[in-house]
Please model this.
Amino acid sequence: MIHSSPKNIALFNSIIISLIFAAVYTTLYFTYENINIEPGLYLTLLIFGLSFLTINYSINKFIYSRIKVIYKSIGMMRPQKPTKKKSKQNEKSSDVLDIVNQVVMEWGKEQQQEIESLRQGAKYRREFIGNLSHELKTPIFNIQGYISTLLDGGLEDPKINKKFLEKSEKSINRMIALVDDLEYISKLESGELKLKPERFDLFQLTKEVFDFLEMKAEKTGTKLLINPNSAKSVFVKADKKRIRQVLINLVDNAIKYTDKKNSKVTVTFYDFHDKYLIEVKDNGIGIQEDSLVRVFERFYRTDSGRSRDQGGSGLGLAIVKHIIEGHQQTVSVRSTEGEGTTFSFTLDKHK
Ligand code: ADP
Model:
């Protein structure tokens, strides 16, 4: 099939016009004796050429004037992409309809992607609000219950009044921790918290974190250890404050999610050319395989994690992932249910 471009349409029409003219001229030639054939030939060629040029020009002009408006409106609606620069010459030499078609297709594709990302955003917001209200519900209902009991006479009962007030305080602290985590994660996401890389010794920082969490570890009888085979000085280039947060979140989880008597958390530093790989290993309850890929998601908690109700927000590992990826490094997890979990992340060595 012949491609119906303006040129082909002009060619087809000018052939018809020149054929009609040739037919009329031939009839005249045979009717009147004083007419020559030669001028007829030249005139046919001239009519062919002129009609081809006029038709082609008119069609192009018409299409250009109409399509250009559409083309320009699309151009105005599309965000400018500096890489997709089309040369003016190319635009003119190719079939304008093809160009417009291509632009509309690209535009359609971009719109589709935009719609998809908006849909994802809407889904994420729905889930986020659902998760947030779910996390807030437990402490709020608890506080409501304690206060109602106290108001209904419990306040005068020395057996429960102090206990219920303490429990209320615990629930309030839980809400504060949740709001703090939320604020932290939103600052990380908005890029408000800029990383301030510096040289520091990760070995010393780990010891500091162990001191900080010592009381908590003692409560569950958990031993906090640095693998004796690891290097004694581990100088890295990273944001110390944030890496402290990472270690606290990982070691805190390792202490929380255990049910063994002789539970222990071991931190090991592995030396890899220009990086260190840091492992935080516990011998706790472990994580079931299908949850492993999801533990870094905001608010995600495994069934066993949720049922233990250790007062977590489900944001700790999301924060860890943000911080480590913010350093252009990676974090991963491996685990066997009932045996334990190992979180590992990398950091650049200080050269
Ligand atoms: P949470 O505040 O609930 O601890 P996190 O984001 O720190 O939130 O962890 C998400 C979930 O991953 C936890 O609820 C728990 O189910 C699971 N988890 C994290 N660390 C461990 C671990 N060391 N051992 C077992 N499960 C863990």
